[in-house]
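Note to self: user wants both folds in one dump. Writing first protein now.
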Amino acid sequence: MGREFPVPSLSCPGSVDRVPQMASISRIDDGKVVEVANTWDLERTRNPAGALVESHAYGLSAGPDGHLYAVSMGVFAEEGPQPNSGALLRISQGNSEVVVPDLSLPTSVALDQAGNAYVTTNGLGAPGSGTVVEYPAVAGAGM
């Protein structure tokens, strides 16, 4: 029989401080990890349970306005992912902000040159329930 080792949970109590480079969007710059945006604080404010804080950012995409965009899968409570708790995020100046709330389990985002966002939803839903939803003019010049 193999030796068992405890594995720390990535779900941290809401009162725990964030671990560096965890719950963030980062880039590699000259071999070093550099944080671009902190998603921890956003997840703490969006989590209604307050007991679990998890960051599930997916589908990083560059917009024509020069900002990065990603989707947050949503709130993961003890009973599992909560529908309609996901969001489309705009990432700029080290922070992330919600630009489209109340998405159902989004898993990716793409933006065209006109600034329209295309978000896949129900990525963890029943087979055949996934959709691609267009959100017009999310990313535009001057934003």
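First done. Writing the second protein, which came from a different request thread.
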Amino acid sequence: MASPSPGRRSKKKTRPITVEDLFSSVSAKKAYGSFAPPPSYALTPRSAEACLQTGVDPEDLRIRDLDSFWEPDLDPARQSMRHESYCERRHGLVKMLRRSRNGIMASEEQGRKQKASSSKVRGIWGACVGESVTRAMRRLLFGKDRH
């Protein structure tokens, strides 16, 4: 049996993460000094759509410790204020994303219900052989013909 080529790296498949997973993960972002490489993760479709709709950078949802706000010649009180402000903004962003994501799920559910009701209408249309589709549609929607 042939072994994999030494030059190829096996890609580790990771599952997509949600907004909630991001909110509970720790960021490697720093305000000063050597910067961490950009994170590589995939969001779930609904979480990605919620981020796009609201304009939120997913990295802004991750936890940052007080030391990540350190800069030379920065007063510790100001560093603490920046950290507190970041935490408050982070909580506000996740609330906004949750609302957006719930709205997306509600619209998907409404779409499923409409699809199910349209299949019932198609069954009724089959019984309306000989009538034009528009007349059958008017009869179903309004209970009588409207010209």
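Dump finished. Worth passing along: Residues 19-32+41-117 form one domain.
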